[in-house]
Design a protein that fits this description.
Layout (H helix, E strand, L loop, with lengths): L1 E6 L13 H16 L2 E8 L12 E6 L3 H17 L7 H14 L8 E5 L2 H10 L8 E5 L9 H9 L3 E4 L2 H10 L5 E3 L20 E6 L8 H14 L8 E8 L5 H11 L5 E5 L3 H7 L5 E4 L9 H8 L4 E4 L4 H5 L4 E3 L5 H14 L1 H17 L8 H9 L8 E7 L6 H9 L6 E8 L5 H11 L3 E6 L3 H12 L4 E4 L5 E2 L3 H12 L3 E9 L5 E3 L6 E4 H10 L10 E4 L20 H7 L2 E13 L10 H21 L3 H21 L5 H15 L7 H10 L5
Parallel strand pairs: 1-2, 1-4, 2-3, 4-5, 5-6, 6-7, 8-9, 8-11, 9-10, 11-12, 12-13, 14-15, 14-17, 15-16, 19-23
Antiparallel strand pairs: 17-22, 18-23, 19-20, 19-22, 21-23
Length: about 700
Amino acid sequence: MKKLAILAPCILPVPASKGGAVEELITCIINQNEISKAFAIDLYTIADSSYSLKSYSCTNIIPISFDTITLKLDKVFDKYYRTVKDKSAKRVFDKRIIEEFLARSSKMEESYFAVIIENQMSMAAELLKATGFSRDYPIYLHMHNDVDIYRSPEYIEFLAKYGVQFIAVSEYIKSQVLKYSSDAVVHILKNGISFDDYSPVRKKPDGKIRFLYAGRVIPTKGVAELIDAFSVMQSRLPSGMQGNVLLDIIGFSDKPTKYEKQIYSKANMYGTGISCHKRLLTKQMAEKYNEYDIVVMPTVDEEPFGLVALETIAKGLPLITTNSGAIPEVVGDGAVIVDKNADFISNLAAEMTHLATDEEYRTALGKKAYNSARRTVEFDINTYYYRLVNILDTKCSQGTISVIVPVYNVENQLERCLQSLISQTYTQLEIILVDDGSADNSGDICEKYAAKDSRIKVIHQENKGLSGARNSGLDVATGEYIFFLDSDDYLDVTTIEKMMAQANRCNADIVACGFAHVYDNGTKSPFTSSAPAQYSGREAVLQMMTTNNICSTAWNKLYKADLWKDIRFPAGRLHEDEATTYKLLFNANLVAYLPECLYKYYQRDDSIMNAGLAKRYRDYILACKERIRFFKDNNYMAAMDQSILSLLEYIKYVYRNIDADKKDCIKKLYKDLLKEYGIPTSIERQKRLALMVWGFISY
């Protein structure tokens, strides 16, 4: 069974013995997992005595305890962050939760298949920092609330940068995430209810018209505005109805807040017309709806989903609500929507009056609401768990992978390369061998292997160079994924299987693996980083230029084929990878890095990369210039600056290694480039100074 970690907010207990919308949804997940047994779940949640009443076979509850000082500190910090408002809020006990998570995960033989962090971005940020941004498992931030101090734009950008994926409860929340980070990978998992608990309302006639507000009693929910609208409505009612139209407000805390006290006081002004009640559990609320004629949800802020709205229309109750956030996408045409931004109280009062005085209108709206709720399959809580499973576990796709192998005069290494391909444990391959005008027996070897393996296609062409050979392969490839293998290199037999599994596991558009240099004497020397990682496409570009994990090579990567739709290698040039790979990474949503050295990079004296600098440095400079222009056009200044730095550092490298009679020419080129691009402003001060000095004192 695959291991799944769920990190609850640790505010209320899970299972949800004390309520909480997020906690009840997590409870739904672990309950349904008991039936399907898709995962072995480790649930990290706040310690509570109620856990002794529950027993799970597929969920291990890991209670997190907090000392009194930590709890008091977090209350102080919460008040501070809500006062300042321009900072991303942090919680002291996030560290305690992550410490427990890391202590437990470090003892596991295999890492978690996936980690879900429920609603707390500060916790996700803490996990990234605590792991040094290195992990092989995907992290999902399940976002139930709108952007605020705990789910800030700063957090969104930071999490997306390091490959955290978002699960949004609505299209509205998805749009909010993408507004602050266009790089973010966002899945939709709409909340749901059990329609069995929401049979049509059956209120007994009592001569009264009863309005209901149910939800948190906080300023953004528009409770004060509702009371004002109720007062205006009373003044508009026929004299015979006054005194027979009532409003119940359900959702007060056990210990009233300052705002709740204000609402109590405001409601008391109307005597028996308005009643205030403490919050109820979901199942209690489902039954309570039967006492009412009309529900009002007067949210004045943006609503991330609108569970009360869904519950209301599922009961077939007339609903008056606002154009807040996700509410229109939840209710559809099954409710009256009032514009919260235009004469709100007066218009709200008008709709309340209309529904209170027109029984036929109430009945018609109730029927429309009931049908509207049931038209959307995603609103059925019985599908919630399986929709989540589909996000987390896409199953290992057995789609075809096109492996493109450019072949040119490698008769001594080619059979080793091809044998490693046809022996792959992942068998759904399209192997495209492009014989690029070889003068030795390479073409014959290609045909020999094609005769014994039907997955192999051979293209014979006049010599077009490495770029031309790869492009010919791309032009005929039919696979869902693309992989390049140079004909003097080879793979571990599990390479494609492991990379494909990671692509599915992480929803990655590109997976890069580690590689090792191999020599004729059998020596293997790992070149790449040993730390697994995941990045947004834009961050992967920076990683390519600054670390040795992603790297600019085309051949240690598995790509989704559609990334290549409008991209080809530059014909007739060297350093073709430098001119191409960054475009693929930039266009990817998510890039995963597997550190295992699955690709074997053969080192030979006559390879292209070992050719003289004088023959190839101009192509590298051209590739860098194109890259600088590309990032400038795409307004990605950090990558543009890093590209300028790479170019200038490369010129210094050429100067140190080229023949003495060409050094003056290279030094002049450096000064010209420095004049053209300037010194990048975003890099460290020490590096900026070194670049400036080198123009005068070359070393």
